[in-house]
Amino acid sequence: MATPAGFWRRYAAYSLDAVAIALLALPLAWPRLKAAKLAYDAGLTALQMRLWELLDAAFRAGLDPGTQLLDWSRDPVLRAGLLDLAGVLAGAALATAACLMAVAALWFVAGEASPWQASPGKRALGLKVTTLAGERPGLLRVIGRFLAGLPSWLLLNLGHALAGWRKDKRALHDLIAGTRVMLADGAPVRMPRWARVWLGAQAVLFFAGVGWVLLNYLRLAWEVLRDAL
Which tens digit of pLDDT belongs to each residue from 35-45? Predict the structure, then answer.
């Protein structure tokens, strides 16, 4: 009987797929991101110029700028500029998400509906997607499985985490689509060493990033406290 794939092995496979998908989607999203960067820089410059105008007017009138913050928050030019910046960021985020979604759909559906029954990442980790009966899933089931992953993202990945809690190692999208992720025929039960190194590298990068954020936060807090004293 085939063995269900464990959570960390599934995650290692997914993270490989995610890197490849991001690299493929970046050229598609790049023109939109480049245009958004130019629009953002122009909008930010316009906001800075408007703030300087308001500061100059306050100083000329002998007013304390700190007392004018509420009035400035109602300034139509500043409000319009902030809304424009928000629109630029939202548009860039949506365009990038659309590119990622399109590439991911082709990547996962084509792989899991193929004779491999796996995306390239799953294939590298010796995994395959099957029906509950252990058979190769059809195209519609694979498409449904991909779409069923959306609730897991909306639930902050809790749906994916089910694979680590359940005895049958099925995630939410597996439960919805009636699928399993199993070890492929001939795949070693133990995760390959290179995959464990790959997971370890991600852990190091994650904690290094968290540490960098904390150190910068503490440095900023210390500077504020020092200036206050």
Answer: 988 998 888 88
